[in-house]
Specification:
- There is one protein chain.
- The protein is α+β, with helices and mostly antiparallel strands.
- The strands form three sheets. It has a five-stranded mixed sheet, sandwiched between helices. The protein has a three-stranded antiparallel sheet with strand order 1-2-3, with helices on one face. The protein has a two-stranded antiparallel sheet with strand order 4-5.
- The longest helix has 15 residues.
- The radius of gyration is 22 Å and the shape is globular.
Length: 234
């Protein structure tokens, strides 16, 4: 949404819950880099809800108009120049959804870190191998570069006739959001889980990720239960 309004979303670098600045965001003008909303001395101060309200209110359009850009004056027509035709731009890379490979570990790690988790590429590579061996799926979206990743798990339960599939993580690079990449990953995951015999697909999403909740609702997912978690001491 920020990109569609001509803005760039700035995320707080504070990763520790409870510390000042954690979970805060701000907006800058995508071209000039000027502060638009929610930044004090370049430090994000707005919540995700405040950012969404600001963008939906169309205030970013007012910001762009306030930059003072003037229309260029009409120049006199110049004679056409002869010469070689300009090289056409390179076509946009095609979106490819595929199974993750060990070589993708570094790019996947960067996406997970952007989601707010501290991980190392070596750990991600090792966990990927374990997940695949257990029959789970790790899918990536590549559009030239790797721009998204999704993981699933499958659980056989006593109270249902078929196994339950779960989308446990989905992240798309910030610059690539809004282009249907998340939807393509979810569709590919649903198809694989269906072929694996699952009769239900669940999604786990942190309670604070309101934009993610809206995204899943658009894809037909409904809130069906509460999810509780407890850290275990080892």
């Amino acid at each position: 949404m920020a990109a569609n309004r001509g803005c760039r979303l700035v995320r707080s670098r504070v990763r520790t819950p409870g510390k000042s600045g954690y979970g805060k965001f701000g907006l800058k003008d995508a071209k000039s880099g000027k502060t638009v909303f929610g930044l004090t001395r370049d430090k994000p101060t707005a919540t995700a809800d405040e950012i969404e309200t600001f963008l939906r209110g169309g205030a970013s359009s007012e910001w762009r108009r306030s930059l003072g850009k003037t229309k260029p004056s009409k120049a006199k027509a110049e004679p056409k120049k002869t010469g070689p035709k300009p090289t056409p731009p390179e076509p946009e890379p095609e979106l490819v959804i595929r199974a993750a490979r060990p070589a993708d570990a570094a790019a996947i790690t960067a996406l997970i870190v952007a989601l707010g988790y501290e991980v190392e590429a070596a750990d991600v590579r090792r966990r990927m191998v374990s997940l695949v061996k257990a029959g789970h799926f790790v899918l990536v979206a590549a559009k030239g570069a790797l721009v998204g990743v999704l993981t699933t798990s499958t659980t056989a339960v006593l109270h249902r006739p078929k196994p339950v599939g779960r989308i446990s993580m989905l992240v798309v690079a910030e610059a690539a959001r809004g282009a249907g990449i998340g939807r393509a990953l979810v569709t590919a995951a649903e198809e694989r889980l269906r072929k694996a015999g699952c009769g239900l697909v669940e999604v786990t999403s942190n309670v604070k990720r309101l934009r993610a909740h809206a995204f899943y609702r658009k894809l037909g997912y409904e809130r069906t239960s509460y999810r509780f978690g407890k850290q275990l001491d080892l």
